[in-house]
Specification:
It is a single chain. The protein has 261 residues and is an alpha+beta fold. The protein has two domains: 5-226, Cytochrome c-like domain (Cytochrome Bc1 Complex, Chain D, domain 2); 232-261. It has ten helices and six strands, in the order ααβααβαααββαββαα. The protein has helices spanning 5-24, 46-59, 71-77, 82-88, 107-114, 124-128, 130-138, 165-168, 206-224, 228-256, and strands spanning 66-70, 100-101, 140-142, 150-152, 169-181, 187-201. The strands form three sheets. It has a two-stranded antiparallel sheet with strand order 1-2. A hairpin with a 5-residue loop joins β5 and β6 (187-201). α2 crosses α9 (206-224) and α7 (130-138) packs antiparallel against α9 (206-224). The protein is extended and about 85 Å long.
Length: 261
């Protein structure tokens, strides 16, 4: 998916607010304000990870680094040839293939603009969980009372603007009144999220937007543990070995004790 240079730069700047908002909500209960949706990631889907890497460098790396992941590791794991790596993922001409993913924004500028340096994204998925990030990115709705004009069902009161609104379009949240009880048995009314209503359409369909977000979160999960897919594949062989070893041990046991009354 392509965006013009102006849009990409704006979304990259806004992406800083996203991760600051995620970190500020770390003390909140998971899913507060709305139930989490399952990201259903597949870190063995190389095509999805490649698309997620593209989304990351276009929408995140303008402000955020991934200091624990190197370009050459991404290229090797995701089967990306070096010419394609340089053309599609390495926008900084001075960057080298063995380098880690540095932010294009100087730390001093980031501090002046946002009050703090944008957080590194290498371990964001491990810190907050893939379902949380996936639900957060999909959870924005129009709210004129907020400074940014939007709110989020996963993290109410978030300071982040809806950076993906041009893709998904605008949506309105419908809330219903529910009656709840305190520990003392007193009744009180509370608003609970019901559903979204589609407003101004975006540039992609709902299905395409879900795929876009899922690919992005998939790549963030990969960055949190690049060896995860290999570890899981190796785990299967380890289990099979243990099962085979158990069978041999059982047969040996039967052979040793067959003449014992």
């Amino acid at each position: 998916m392509r965006t013009d240079r102006r849009t990409r730069a704006a979304l990259s700047r806004c992406g800083t607010v996203l991760l600051l908002a995620l970190i500020s909500g770390a003390a909140l209960a998971e899913g507060e304000g709305g139930a989490l949706q399952a990201a259903n990631n597949d870190i063995e889907n190389t095509a999805s990870l490649q698309r997620g890497a593209r989304n990351f460098v276009n929408y995140c790396s303008g402000c955020h680094s991934a200091q624990y992941v190197r370009y050459n590791r991404i290229a090797a794991d995701l089967n990306i040839p070096e010419p394609a790596l340089r053309a599609s993922l390495m926008f900084n001409p001075a960057a080298k293939v063995p380098d880690t993913l540095h932010s294009a924004m100087p730390a001093a500028d980031a501090t002046n603009w946002f009050g703090a340096a944008p957080p590194d994204l290498s371990l964001m998925s491990r810190a907050r969980g893939s379902d949380y990030i996936y639900s957060f990115l999909k959870g924005f709705y129009l709210d004129p009372s907020r400074p940014t004009g939007v709110n989020n069902i996963v993290l109410k009161g978030t300071a982040m603007p809806d950076v993906l609104a041009n893709l998904r379009g605008e949506q309105k949240a419908v809330f219903r009144k529910v009656t709840k009880h305190t520990d003392e048995g007193k009744e009180y009314q509370e608003e609970e999220f019901d559903k979204f209503e589609v407003g101004e359409p975006g540039t992609v369909s709902a299905k395409e937007f879900d795929g876009f977000v899922r690919d992005t979160v998939n790549f963030l999960q990969y960055m949190g543990e690049p060896v995860q897919a290999k570890r899981q594949a190796l785990g299967v062989w380890v289990v099979l070995f243990l099962l085979l070893f158990t069978l041999f041990a059982y047969l040996l046991y039967k052979d040793y004790w067959r003449d014992v009354d």
